[in-house]
Amino acid sequence: QVQLVESGGGLVQAGDSLRLSCAVSGRALGSYTMGWFRQAPGKERDLVARIHWSSNWTYYANFVKGRFTISRDNAKNTVYLQMNSLKPEDTAIYYCAAAPNSAQYLYWGQGTQVTVSS
Predict the structure, then answer these.
(1) 82 DSSP β-pair partners
(2) Does residue 91 have a pLDDT over 80?
(3) Read out DSSP for 9-72?
(4) In this predicted model, what pLDDT tens digit does every residue of 44-73 receive, in sequence order?
(5) What gap in Å lies between CA 98 and CA 105, rounded to an integer?
(6) Beta strand pairing status for 112-117 and 10-13?
(7) Quick one: pLDDT at residue 16?
(8) Residue 36 exposed, middle or buried by CB count within 10 Å (0-12, 13-18, 19+)
(9) Three-class SS of residue 90?
């Protein structure tokens, strides 16, 4: 079993930055892919970025490329999402998720709210 706890959300103005954290516990993550998703009111949950824990390979959705950076800290077993140049359309609940062996995302955090005012 893997437990995920997100933190770092909040209310910011357009153009500001936030860093989300996802503390992971439960097992070794070498074969896992970690993802950040977001869901705005009335919309589907979208993949924002993902990272393979051991290879550090990353992927970004087009709508965040150049603004967001996903990273992980082995020592702290934590995944981060650095969000720069935030826009009002980035407003959503952000979720951290874990996919064993880079397959289906089986484990999810409780989510953290990010609100960007114009």
Answers:
(1) 19, 69
(2) yes
(3) -EEEETT--EEEEEEEESS--TT-EEEEEEE-TTS--EEEEEEETTT--EEE-GGGTTTEEEEE
(4) 999 999 999 999 999 999 999 999 999 999
(5) 5
(6) parallel
(7) 98
(8) buried
(9) helix
